[in-house]
Specification:
Blueprint: H1 2-14, H2 23-35, E1 74-78, E2 81-84, E3 87-89, E4 94-95, E5 98-103, E6 107-112, E7 115-120, H3 127-132
Antiparallel strand pairs: 1-2, 2-3, 4-5, 5-6, 6-7
Helix pairs in contact: 1-2
Length: 135
């Protein structure tokens, strides 16, 4: 840079331009500029529209609740067999984690992990859903 400035001044002086600039003063300014340290640069963060934003508040997500145990629904009982969850099941057969022990006219007895449970015929009825259904 210093050479370029000196070269420019030399060319202008040879061309006959009347310059009232002292070449030695300009050269000394360039010398001082090279000796002074530059100010530290600031670390600017450049905006990147494709970078994923950091969350404003870091919160721990609550643990997901354990899935609710699904109890089979008994729709019908006939000839010692039961219609449970869309299929006919005989005593001794399994429905998921449950085993059918007996089929009675009022419901079925199933066993799971050594415990016997009575499932009533028809299961749970939701009257609001039945009322709101359109034919």
């Amino acid at each position: 840079m210093k050479r370029a400035a000196l070269f420019l001044l030399a060319v202008l002086s040879l061309m006959g331009a009347d310059l009232s600039i002292d070449v030695q003063a300009v050269a000394s300014k360039f010398d001082r500029l090279g000796k002074t340290p530059l100010p530290p640069t600031l670390d600017f963060h450049v905006y990147d529209p494709f970078r994923r934003a950091k969350p404003l508040i870091k919160t721990a997500r609550p643990a997901a609740p354990a899935p609710a145990e699904r109890v089979p629904t008994v729709s019908a009982v006939m000839n010692g067999r039961a219609f449970i969850d869309g299929r006919w099941v005989a005593p001794g057969q399994h429905i998921g984690a449950y085993r059918l022990v007996a089929a009675r006219s009022y419901g079925v007895i199933v066993e799971r992990a050594g415990r016997k449970i009575l499932l009533r015929l028809g299961g749970r009825k939701n009257l609001l859903k039945l009322k709101d259904m359109k034919p």
